[in-house]
TrEMBL record:
Coiled coil: 531-572
Domain DNA2/NAM7 helicase helicase: 388-574
Top-level taxon: Bacteria
PANTHER family referenced in this protein's UniProt entry, alphabetically: DNA-BINDING PROTEIN SMUBP-2 (PTHR43788:SF8), DNA2/NAM7 HELICASE FAMILY MEMBER (PTHR43788)
Matches recorded under SUPFAM superfamilies: P-loop containing nucleoside triphosphate hydrolases (SSF52540)
Membrane is among the record's keywords: no
Name of the protein described by the UniProt record: DNA2/NAM7 helicase helicase domain-containing protein
GO molecular function: 5'-3' DNA helicase activity
Protein source organism: Fervidicella metallireducens AeB
Keyword field: Coiled coil
Gene3D superfamilies the record matches: P-loop containing nucleotide triphosphate hydrolases
Keyword Coiled coil on entry: yes
Lineage: Bacteria, Bacillati, Bacillota, Clostridia, Eubacteriales
């Protein structure tokens, strides 16, 4: 589809200029090529909707109301604009037809996430004729937005239209229900009595008083002027008047009650007092009840501190804070205000006059919302809360980059408040506004408390002051400027003034050092020489330490060898004493001693016809230490065996010596030798 697109930017020039400036703050990269004298709005027009430029656009009717058209137009991003819109956003305009139906009056310019063409959009090629003034003087032809074109535009969301209609019906029913439940009673006089405020209530009869008595005990009971009711005596809520009431303290009971025309009691003086208030009362014999409520804590304290001569004046002052005549009733202003706001919101949604132009497409069908894309993500360079964990950082990143909506869910204690506070900070430092809403006042105040010390957060706490916590009250309208300036002052003090003071001290110290520069310089030279000498000494010490460490290592190795020798000697000693024990070796340095003290003497056993191992015949024999030990063990074991038999041998010798039998001469000689050996 092709044609001309006539766009009038002049009717709402001030608002459009403000919006364009905000877009520049949020997306400075878009405006890299703006001329010095060119406004942001004119730059955007020249970039996307230049006069006489033919381009491709997506257009949609975001209104859900019949015969009400709200057009949203955004460019189809091609190579040229892709280089400009490098962060995943694009710029769209919203407009409506002028009365003649010949051109669009642009009333809003916004930055939105760029997406492919959506189901409810139509793609067209159009030549834009964009003007800031004199649009009426232009001859218009081939205007693309014809009645036929409008009729062909897809509905943004049928399900949203149906659901919003149901919500409207529900709000109408809710409004009527609230009206039917509001009760009230007329009072004709009020008085202050010490710490109580007295109300003279008027009822049709005693039953009416009993029926209303349950409402007297409710905390939300308030005082209203006469026009809160359509009728001056029979309460009928006047919903046309948006009237706020004045809160009173707790109900403390009934003081007295009576019928106005009952003469069987002692209340005539009180009746006379009330006659002037009841002249136009439509009830013939009304029932009077005088009830009392506590003054507020503040009023009670003021009464106690008030001088005696000022008591009456102060009572009159307190009395004048309330309507002289009116109604006691439960305030429903808040509920009706809420319903009116909700109806207004629905109406704006239907017209498409909302911040998010395509919200109706996914409001009741979340699957239609655009999904977060991984490219062109906004990166967080500065975290307000430095202890935030990785999962919380990920949630904040996704909130910053969500095209339409981001939902986060988690049980208590998982850090949702931390994430919300961090996200608000991140949006704020990017010059974006944030509305924080919750059903619970404490939830909002907890978030405010997390952001309390940041001067970059300029927040206003809205709501009923009585329900706002102490943390939240510093952000209320009457306190926020003072708190904000205090925060700035503290931030400037910490980050600038203290730094400057420190710099001043540093400069003074530097000047003192500068004045002593010559002495310091000489000291530096002297210390440099000393340092050089110390370094030489250090190197010598290092060398000495290295040599000593080498000696220590040698000693350790020597000690290790000695320890091994000691253990070996212990094993040898054990064998020598017990002829049993673990294996040992005979090293070269022990070989000579062993030869002289053990082996060589044992060699003499050969003369006694005892066989000796012939492998170790001299001290110079080249036998391994293990082999020597084996020979030594064998020889000692043999000697031990011989030693054990010596007593028997002696007996045998003695026996042979005294025996009368003739002994062979050779044998006798051998016996003599053996005896001599035994005495050795």
């Amino acid at each position: 589809m092709q044609g001309n697109l006539y766009l009038d930017f002049g009717k709402n020039i001030d608002n459009l200029n403000k919006a364009a400036k905000k877009i520049r703050v949020r997306h400075p990269s878009y405006f890299k090529n703006i001329d010095e004298n060119e406004s942001e709005l004119q730059y955007i027009i020249n970039m996307i909707f230049a006069d006489g430029m033919s381009a491709e656009y997506y257009i949609s009717n975001t209104s859900l109301k019949e015969d009400v058209y709200d057009f949203t137009i955004r460019p189809k991003i091609g190579p040229r604009l892709e280089r400009i819109f490098d962060d995943g956003f694009t710029i769209a305009i919203k407009g409506y037809l002028d009365k003649s139906g010949n051109y669009l009056i642009i009333y809003r310019i916004i930055d939105i996430f760029n997406t492919e063409k959506m189901d409810f959009e139509v793609e067209l090629i159009a030549t834009t004729i964009s003007k800031i003034d004199n649009m009426n003087r232009i001859y218009k032809q081939d205007f693309v937005i014809t009645p036929e074109f409008i009729a062909s535009l897809p509905e943004i969301s049928k399900i949203t239209a149906q659901r919003l209609s149901k919500w409207e019906n529900y709000l109408n029913w809710r409004e009527e229900l609230i009206k039917s439940k509001i009760e009230g009673v007329r009072y004709v006089n009020i008085e202050i009595d010490e710490e109580y405020i007295l109300f003279y209530l008027i009822f049709k009869n005693e039953d009416a008083f009993r029926n209303f008595n349950k409402f007297l005990r409710k905390d939300e009971l308030m005082v209203f002027p006469l026009n809160y009711s359509k009728d001056e005596w029979n309460f009928e809520y006047n919903y046309e008047n948006n009237i706020s009431g004045k809160k009173i303290g707790n109900y403390k009971g009934k003081i007295i009650s009576f019928y106005m025309k009952d003469k069987e009691d002692d209340k005539d003086d009180l009746r006379d007092k009330l006659k002037k208030y009841l002249e136009d009362c439509e009830w013939d014999n009304p029932y009077i009840a005088v009830v009392k409520f506590e003054l507020s804590d503040e009023d009670q304290e003021d009464m106690l501190n008030c001088p005696e001569d000022m008591i009456e004046y102060y009572k009159t002052k307190l009395t004048n804070q309330y309507p002289k005549q009116g109604f006691l009733s439960i305030s429903s202003v808040g509920e009706f205000s809420l319903i009116r706001r909700q109806k207004r919101t629905i109406d704006l949604l239907k017209k498409g006059e909302v911040y998010a132009p395509f919200i109706c497409s996914w409001l009741f069908d979340i699957k239609k919302a655009n999904v977060l894309r991984s490219n062109n993500l906004i990166e967080v360079q500065e975290w307000f809360n430095r202890s935030i964990n990785d999962e919380q950082k990920d949630a904040v990143q996704k909130m910053l980059n969500a095209p339409d909506v981001f939902l986060i869910q988690g049980p208590p204690g998982t850090g949702k408040t931390t994430v919300i506070a961090e996200a608000i900070y991140q949006f704020a430092i990017r010059n974006q506004k944030v509305i924080l809403a919750s059903q619970a006042n404490l939830a909002v105040d907890n978030v405010f408390d997390r952001l309390a010390n940041s001067p970059k957060i300029r927040a206003i706490r809205l709501g009923c002051n009585e329900k706002i916590s102490d943390e939240g009250k510093q952000f209320t309208e009457e306190n926020v400027l003072k708190y904000f300036y205090n925060t700035i002052s503290e931030d400037v003090k910490v980050n600038y003034l203290n730094v400057w003071l420190q710099l001043d001290n540093d400069i003074k110290n530097f000047e003192e050092w500068y004045n002593k520069a010559e002495f310091i310089y000489n000291d530096i030279i002297a210390y440099s020489k000393k340092l050089e000498e110390i370094n030489k000494q250090k190197e010598n010490i290092k060398l000495y330490i290295k040599n000593e460490e080498k000696k220590i290592e040698e000693i350790r190795e020597f000690n290790s060898i000695l320890e091994e020798k000691r253990e070996n000697i212990e094993k040898m000693k054990k064998f020598c004493s017990d002829f049993d024990g673990p294996d040992f070796i005979i090293e070269d340095d022990m070989s000579q001693i062993i030869w002289q003290e053990f082996i060589e003497p044992l060699m003499n056993l050969e003369s006694c016809y005892i066989e000796i191992n012939q492998d170790w015949r001299s001290k110079e024999n080249d036998i391994s230490p293990g082999k020597k030990a084996s020979i030594f063990r064998e020889m000692l074991e043999n000697w031990n065996n011989i030693y054990k038999r010596i007593p028997q041998i002696k007996e045998d010798i003695e026996f042979l010596s005294v025996n009368d039998e003739v002994i062979d001469t050779k044998i006798q000689l051998e016996l003599c030798k053996l005896e001599k050996k035994l005495r050795m």
